[in-house]
Amino acid sequence: MKKVLLVVDMQNDFIDGALGTPEAAAIVPHVAERIRGFEGLIICTRDTHEENYLDTQEGQNLPVPHCIRNTTGWQLAPSIQEACQGKNPVILDKVTFGSRDLPACLAEHCPEGMDCIEVLGLCTDICVISNALLLKAFFPETKISVNSACCAGVTPQSHETALEAMKMCQLQIL
């Protein structure tokens, strides 16, 4: 059995780039510290879009180009990259809010199952909640928690709303 840390979209565009917020910037040191202290499998997701982003459904609903593949904004924040050194994280590029590859990745890396999965990152109210609920659907008997001190939403209010929704879906909020 394994412990898993899912680090969601700790990318430059969500921290101090196109969609950055002060709340997102404020959690970066906490996330880096959590990564450094974690013993177990670490998976980092990267929101990944192509040059045609504005032509996609997401781009039409959120017309702010961000996390375009191979740009600086798409990269994990430098302090997150540094914290991951020597931890051999699995990096999953995802084109949707929830990673379609995440369940298979966990099945491959943890064939005997997992004791617990801790989720943190950005944005609480979009990609964190999507991935946390995806995990709950695929691994209903695994303890799944969300580290609220290491998450930030689009707004502080939407962050709190997402935490409440996840709590109602039997995810543990730390």
Structure overview:
The chain has 174 residues and is α/β, with parallel strands linked by helices. The chain is globular. It has helices at 12-15, 22-37, 57-61, 78-84, 102-109, 124-138, 156-168; strands spanning 2-8, 41-47, 90-94, 114-122, 143-152, 172-173. The protein contains seven helices and six strands, in the order βααβααβαβαβαβ. A six-stranded parallel sheet has the order 3-2-1-4-5-6. 39% of the residues lie in helices and 23% in strands. Helix 2 packs parallel to helix 4 (78-84). Strand 5, helix 7 and strand 6 form a beta-alpha-beta unit.
Low confidence ranges: none
| Count of separate DSSP helical elements | 7
- Biggest β-sheet, characterized? 6 strands, parallel
Classify the beta-strand content into a percent band: 15-25%
What is the average of the pLDDT values?
A: 97
Walk across the major sheet and give the strand order. Answer: 3-2-1-4-5-6
Order of helices and strands: EHHEHHEHEHEHE
Give the overall silhouette. globular
Number of strands: 6
Calculate Rg over CA atoms.
15 Å
Global structural class: alpha/beta
The first-to-last residue Cα distance is 21 Å
What level of helicity do the residues show?
A: 25-40%
